[in-house]
């Protein structure tokens, strides 16, 4: 069965120290200003955070199938201090690096991965569209091939790490024709930043994740070489769905970090906040909620790291993709909903102070909701879990 080793725990401490030293002192101001701290990305790269699942030949850690658990530990610890920086790492690896690493040619890997692993650049993942979210197969962006070049037209929505001063490329899904049975042929195409016709729209005014970089993208007669096809033509949708399986585990780790932060905050507050002449933690109405929160954190963490362990075991050939997909959806569903509940409990225990932005639980509350939406909504996870149990679709 899976367990975290001393090396895992030492790595956790390394990332926690970084987050508390480099992010925590500034996070409230960055959140108010909607500021993306680009300078932290190469520092994260120096710690090796972007290379945990990447072979040494491209600058990665070369952990031989064991890197995904380390990645989840890093995401959890960053997310414990700030969810935005946690998703920056999660998307930077899972949605930026992973498609290139998994489906790219040797030339594409050599061109893009070393800078991405080092944190010198970031990559985005363009799947969602204004009219194609959960229905990702409804992609309307189109790409036509002529004279050795793809011409891309369309739009993407809610794309993380797509408009920073470090963004080097965005991989997008596009209709490239029709299959023999008349369905849309969807392929993945890499579009470098600065390509003529590739426009990064203004940043979204979001409920939470104020520090994270998120934009809509438009493509108007955007021309890239034929060699920018990522993977096989017509396999783009399948490739991106596989990518989302890993992303769901990463979002679970992000949710664990948020729930852990809530638990720490309410435990301390319940000891020090005095009402009616005694700490509020004396009251069972408070202490029972804190206890429930502790249970949710523990359960979320176990589900998440079981899924991460299964992913690493699958990479080593010892577990099946079906096991990983089911575990990923279960972890993502439970952990994301637990995190939302944790922030509600924390805000309630903090009372009026919880409604004030000077206390971090207000930020936690705003940041939590997207966890139930991104990388597949809770409804989608329930559908996938039911299918995994053999129920008719």
TrEMBL record:
Cofactor annotation: FAD
Domain Acyl-CoA dehydrogenase/oxidase C-terminal: from-to ranges: 234-389
Start and end of every Acyl-CoA oxidase/dehydrogenase middle domain?
125-222
Per UniProt, residues of the Acyl-CoA dehydrogenase/oxidase N-terminal domain are: 5-119
Q: Name one GO molecular function term.
A: flavin adenine dinucleotide binding
Q: What family is this protein classified in?
A: Belongs to the acyl-CoA dehydrogenase family.
Q: What's the protein here called? A: Alkylation response protein AidB-like acyl-CoA dehydrogenase
